[in-house]
Amino acid sequence: MNKIRLQTGFTSIPRPCSFFDRLRTALGLPKRSGFTLIELLVVIAVIGLLASVIMVSLNSARAKARDARRKADTKQLGTALELFYDANNYYPYTGLPDGNSAAMSYLTTYLTPAYLAKIPDDPTCPTVCYSYVQLGSGKDYALYVPLQDNQNPCVIRTPGATAVWAGVPGCN
User: Is pTM, for the whole model, over 0.85?
Assistant: First the structure.
């Protein structure tokens, strides 16, 4: 074992020396000053773990952002429908079965450009789309908005349209 001399006296402490260090010294090779393969693999594993955690949280943030946009779009549509009702004394009629998502395209005729610049599109349509229905001879309406997980949809509706999509909470 090699010994190192301390500056304060003649006491020496053993210096750890691996087989490879002794082999390098015997062959006259310079002392190694780098990372071992194990150290590099551990660092790569930690970076991979952190990246996966960040990606999962980023995906949930994107889903929340899409839901926020859906709710804002729904409120915008609700305001445009109310403005249309104030001007015409009825809500737009689509001629389609109740809750048909294709009814949204018919709203373009009634609401644009006077009340809306354009009918908002769902961020993930055609997978998930808004649905509109006019009820009570044009005196009521309901607008259905499926949220990201499809487990918690919300509805904007007039008080007379409570039976449509019953049990679905309002969009807040």
Answer: no
